[in-house]
Amino acid sequence: MKPLLKKSVESAVYSFTLKELIEPHFDPNWHFHPHYQLFTVLEGSGTRFIGDNIRHFEAGDTVFLGPNIPHLWQSDRAYFEHNPDLITHGIVIYFTEDFLGDDFFEKSEMHNLKQLLERGERGLDIFGETKEYIRYELQNLHHFEGFERVLKFLSMLHQLAQSTEYEYIASFGYVNTHKVSETERMQKVHEYVMKHFKEEVRLSELASLVSMSDSAFCRYFKSRTNKPFFDFIAEIRIGHACKLLHEGNLSITQVAYESGYNTISNFNRQFKEITGKTPLLYQKEYTKGIR
Fold it and tell me: Residues 143-194: pLDDT tens digits?
């Protein structure tokens, strides 16, 4: 696999780029780009990495990201097994701050939109009626051309700027410290962890894979992700557990073992630390929410 940390999404024709993504799986490469991004998942599930945040994703996931936030929607393993019944489907808009001119967002009338762009520097997880509005408009934007398309897009940004239905994704003070030259190293880390998180993850094996000592790797990883390596593992495991709880096919004990935990007490403790809820309460609230 060729790593793509710095991704090019520029349009040579339009002021902003609108893409419909229909593939067997989402782009498996951890990357960033100098564009704002408004993205919704229509089909697919897996683990989402944005900045220093990790969580399970599924259809409905809708985010607004600022420039140069590293991100990856890692599809579940089943999507890589050539199953014709599984596809991923998403719609994304890419744009730069100067897509309508150098000083467009500096005008007094654009104050709220300017604030939206500033909030986007940490990434916004959109929910509620605002999410449904954004998803509907993204799916219909391709019906418009020229000036009408630009107006529709600005209306979407305006509605998003007025809304309070969002949560920040990356932690306060998060800064992208990754370099393009580090692409391959971090890609190897992600791939190894996603392959082995259900097992005992051996720090020495992973450190050797990226040609570092154990202690050097731990320092490097924390400096790049703003969290200790084993917190990163725990978040991936709990994200996978959330997916299994959504599906509702396994008992809590089975979910724990399928997510890499050997004891139910450790699973319950880490699940509550990360989600703020017990696994049972989390499952009940999710089931209630989709009825």
Answer: 999 999 999 999 999 999 999 999 999 887 676 665 555 667 777 888 888 8
| Count of structural domains within the chain | 2
Inside any domain, residue 61 = yes
User: Whose CA is closest to 66, among 133, 155, 160, 147?
Assistant: 160
Single-letter amino acid, residue 195 = K
Buried b (16+ CB within 10 A) or exposed e, 144-183: eeeeebbeebeebbeebbebebbebbbeeebebebeeeeb
The separation between the first and the last C-alpha atoms of the chain, rounded to the nearest angstrom, is: 41
Question: What is the DSSP code (8-state) at residue 167?
Answer: E
E strands, 165-258, in order: 166-168
Domain extent, residue 207, equals 197-289
d(CA 95, CA 109) in angstroms, rounded, equals 20
Residues 242, 281: Cα–Cα separation, whole Å: 11
* Alpha-carbon torsion angle 137, 139, 144, 150, nearest 10: 50
Q: Of 168, 185, 208, which one is at a domain's C-terminal end?
A: 168
pTM of the model: 0.74
Place of tokens 């994200």: 239
pLDDT of 95 above 90: yes
Residues 78, 212 share a domain: no
Which residues neighbour 246 within 8 Å (Cβ) at sequence distance 6 or greater? 56, 58, 283, 286
Helix, strand, or coil here: 164?
coil
92 and 229 assigned to the same domain: no
